[in-house]
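Re-run with default settings, no changes from the original entry. Doing this only to confirm the output is reproducible before filing.
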Amino acid sequence: MGGMTAQVVIAGAGPTGLMLACELRLAGVDVLVLERDAERADAESRAGGMHARTLEVLDQRGMVEPFLRAGRPLPGGHFSALPLDFRNLPTRHPHLLVLLQRHIERLLEEHATRLGVRLWRGAEVTGLRQSGSGVEVEVLGGGPQGNGRHGEAGQRWMSAEYLVGCDGGRSAVRRLAGIGFAGTSATLTAMLGDVELDAPPEHPLFQERREHGTISVLSFEPGWHRVMTTEFDQVAGRDEPVTLEGLRRACLKIAGTDYGMRSPRWLSRFGDAARQAVEYRSGRVLLAGDAAHVHFPAGGQGLNLGVQDAVNLGWKLALVVHGHAPDSLLDSYHAERHPVGARVLENTRAQTALSRVDGHTTALRATLADLLSLDDVNARLSSMITALDVHYPMDGAHLDDRAHPSDGAHPGNGARARGGTLLGQRRHLMDGGHPVESAHLVESALPDADTLSEVGTLSGQEADSEDGGRSADGGHPLVGYRVPDVELEIDTGEVRVFELLHQARGVLLCLDGGAQEGPAAHLAGIASEWADRVDLVRARPSADVWQGPVVGAVRPPVALLVRPDGHIAWATGARPDLDGARAALTTWFGPARR
């Protein structure tokens, strides 16, 4: 293979590809992003929001503020249009941030440009060849001219150490790599239109279930609305044209009005097919985002799932490219993220089933709505939708575990949630003898964002053991979960945990307050062997209790190893487990430097 075009080539400049490029470039990897479209789609925005865990991973990199300024926070979300209250989730971002995908992509691209990411637009991946030392990628069009913004004619081959397909549900990379895409076919037809309305519904976030389907009318920005219809038990042909008249007919059939729709900005049609790549890695080719999983857009999880794929993969790939960690570390990407993706596919299937308009489903929805008045039920579903409850096994044994849905592996990944409250309301109406459920999403059931209390305060009862409680496998209960973003006191002042992750390095955090005989004194020698990849930080916690969405209130560990993605890989109590620390450092950051 000839000289390298880039260490890593990414196909696709959507949110997943751009976030992955930022992660890799931050770690010093030479990365090239290839985007098939010659221009960024400013009129098209498939996704419309960011959940708490996605905001947290942006916060971990010090890049969340532009997104918060551009978006609008709502204090809850929904599960199949049944309101969820996010306000009591243990996070600094207990809300859904309403922000259209085109703005998300613009902000990510601006950040990627500042980091020095190369982006070629008008560049389509048409072929690939793998070898033991790299991958060759055939590209049609694209090039560095015009700052990489416009494609040029011709085909070329370029080489890289790794190729990552972030090129959407019809991924060319997935097809060329021969990776299967297993799942279930569509059972319904949904239409979406960003249109102007002369007679919109009174409420800005409106959804109704009626005899012939469901309809949503959402006000994202002044001057236009997003209208979405769903008709069950009918699947449109792929080649059937998508027109304003078709959307109008669906609205009239379901709602009895077209709300005076006109001037479409963007029209789309989709179904509820739910499919997932059989493997997220095939040699030197990896998949992330919609290239790895597609599902019905229920609960607004898709974009968030892809961005979190990128944050899980980026630091691992950087360690391998730089020669710090063995290639087998990349197997943990599939082992950790495939179950998370499978769980999203399962919960979106459940949400589409709950959206059906027959009497039995209406009764089931009423039962679930009653259950959601219980704090634990609301917290469990809220933690799942926001991905705050994601847990990864940290013993290293899963690195070679390629569990797939067909193997009978449970998609829940052991995730649980508890805590929280629900203030949701529902109305059951009768319309011509047919049951109608009207759910004014989120804002009708919850107070305005201005009334939200400040988040980040930790509460609860202290655990009895000196190690802060034990998980089922004998470790600290927080191991495997994302680290709480608590305030710490260090020699130079106060710092949040997430601020320690801004450079996407590992953090060995010792909470002994700098005691002469504390754990840091024992761990300093070990930490020095990984100093090129992991920072040793000595601090004093400002709170005696840490709060997690699953584990509840626990005493913080005395020392912990935090991975660059924010998940806790190892933790110990007053007696430092030096062998455990060394094993965790080796597992997740490669052998100690010589």
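DSSP finds twelve helices and 32 strands in the chain. The chain has three domains: 6-71+96-181+274-343+385-407, 186-270, 487-589.
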